[in-house]
Amino acid sequence: MRMLRDQGLSLPGDISVAGFGNLLISENAPIPLTTIRQPAIAIGETAAQAILHLLKDKPFSIPEFPAELIIRESVARYRY
Predict the structure, then answer these.
(1) Please, what sign has the CA dihedral across residues 25, 28, 32, 37?
(2) 80 vs 28, 35, 45, 61, 67, CA distance in Å?
(3) pTM higher than 0.70 for the full model?
(4) Domain spans, the chain
């Protein structure tokens, strides 16, 4: 976002920016970053279970995880 501002672009006036992971810095950045939040611990645990199943040649189905869009000041409202 700093590079975009250094190029003379305004956020979110000229360009919108979004991230993934909802890190603490997202909320506390000079321009709070819109981000997607997912349950990282559950995803990691499921990945570990999948690896263990694969090592034992056991089938494993990977579930879908919820995603939440957290809109902050780095994106403009949609205009149609």
Answers:
(1) positive
(2) 30, 22, 41, 40, 25
(3) yes
(4) 2-70
